[in-house]
């Protein structure tokens, strides 16, 4: 922890007194260097709090507004921060700052994955890895709202139970079950039309084997390391498959896309279709332990850092 004096917000910026910081696996990628970032630099891409000052030209925010942001330059692990308004959103009435920070980045990730990257459909089987994590729990609820038949993959009895409580029709315990074999059993041998895989290296073969012909392999994370290079011939032999590696940065690159994605998310929160699940709160000075727990798979749902 380091104490510095923060300058006033510049033109087009607001200064936010942060009450809660969202913890995301992307933070580990930046900290480790897996995602390149300029040095010296800071960590963290999501937080919520209250506007304390506004910069020149800012008219859509006022001092006292409750706000949340996700993405952009790293540096959210702080109690006070200046942010460009392009990435800042007002928190809807009825949503706490803690829930906003637990939901925004993960919820926008789910939005682009299941409504734009591969739009899932009512009655369609869907396989989603890490079903008990922050993204996974939102995906289960959102998929259930759409009417898809969600199959989750989790590790251990407690995580499987939580996934079932959050929209998954079937949950496969990867610690004691063969994922691909169970998927084929569940789908009557057909396989699933789409797999959402945030695990990477350890899950690649099972994901490929779980897909139906012309299925979509959506690889959006690498918690166990990068998946192997994907050969065109493999996609051909396994049934004319599609492979994509999307990112939130490209699906929510503009202010309009951020507002649209967050609007869909908070609309479902207001309707009661999606609820935040905060598994654990850490003090900001416990960020090292929080990263260790996240990388070791010890966390459930969303974790928060409290400045």
From TrEMBL:
Protein name: Quinone oxidoreductase
Lineage: Bacteria, Pseudomonadati, Pseudomonadota, Alphaproteobacteria, Hyphomicrobiales
Organism: Rhodoplanes elegans
Domain called Enoyl reductase (ER): residue spans: 1-305
Pfam family, one: ADH_N
Keyword Oxidoreductase: yes
Keyword Oxidoreductase recorded: yes
GO molecular function, one term: quinone reductase (NADPH) activity
Alphabetic keyword roster: NADP, Oxidoreductase
Gene Ontology CC annotation, any one: cytosol
Classification via InterPro entries: ADH-like_C, ADH-like_N, ER, GroES-like_sf, NAD(P)-bd_dom_sf, QOR-like, Quin_OxRdtase/zeta-crystal_CS
